[in-house]
Amino acid sequence: MAISPDELPGYLAAIRQRVGDEGPQKAAYAMAKAFHAELVDVELVKYSHQKNTRTPSPPGEPPAIIGGHLKRSVKLWPATVTGPYRASSKVGPQIVYARIQELGGTVTPIGHPFLRFPAIGGGWVFARKVKLPPRPYMRPVHRRMVQDGRLRQAAIAAIKRLVAGG
Prior knowledge:
Number of helices: 5
Shape: elongated
Structural class: alpha+beta
Strand order of the largest sheet: 1-4
Helix content: 40-55%
């Protein structure tokens, strides 16, 4: 597309307007989308094991996938404007045990005297409480993607597409 010198100020003003109007949301969503992809397609599939077997993921590593419920529960929200030239998008799991997997903690029964779960090799295990070690999966992905620049690159690519008219 050829632009005459007289058309250039209007062309640049239109780009500036487009980036100012849509840029924050496009950049926030691009970063969230990249984070979501890394989380569900890389981090949450590092380890796996069969149902009713011990988890093979090493301490401090993400939880091993059994049925994929945690992975499928991770939702990506559209970006929303949070202020002038600011926007936010969220990525997060929607399953009840997601937080305790990330941070670790103690599980206690509610409404019953014991927890009950299948024992390895058959039968049942009963316990008054179970301590789960932290198996972080959100924080390591975020830290890695900030450090290696992938979140920044996602935002820059989104702005470049906007500048190019996309």
